[in-house]
Amino acid sequence: MPIVSAKKPLRDKLGDDGIESLIDLLKESQADQKEDMLAFFEEKYERRLGKEVGAISVTIAETEKRLDNRITEEIGKVNVTIAETEKRLDNRITEEIGKVNERTTEEIAGVKTDLANTRADLIKWMFIFWMGQVVALVGILFAFFK
What is the rounded CA–CA span in Å between residue 9 and residue 15? Predict the structure, then answer.
């Protein structure tokens, strides 16, 4: 706070008590003025701070919305990719199962053919064995009845 002093002509007119009273009045006025200015600047600072916080809040909300939209788009792309991959794998599995079924059918047909050939050979050999038995039995009977 500046020091207030009065010049000689004013001192002569008002006297020492008057000057002291005037200086006290000026000091009180300056103190009140200082408090008013501090309150004014405090209000101005609070308003400015409120505006800045509001602007930052709006920016944050816009950024959050933009990021939400982007995340939603990316998730959609991932879901499409997963669906395409799933479809491709499903088709490939179906093809592989078809190939396995075809090979299994061919192998079963081969086994059936081998089984039929083995059966025919077995019947042929059984017939030859029976014929040998019949011939031997007829030979024994001819020898016995003769």
Answer: 10
CA dihedral 58, 60, 65, 67 (to 10 degrees): 160
According to the model, what pLDDT value does residue 3 have?
61
Does the CA dihedral 91-95-101-105 come out positive or negative? Answer: positive
Is residue 12 within 8 A of residue 31, CB to CB? The reply is no
CA atoms within 13 A on the CB side of 127: 6
| The one-letter amino acid at 131 | M
Helix (H, G, I), strand (E, B) or coil at 58: helix
Tokens of 40: 């004014």
What pLDDT does residue 6 have? Answer: 67
Check if the beta carbon of residue 3 is closer than 8 Å to that of residue 23.
no
- The pTM of this model reads 0.45
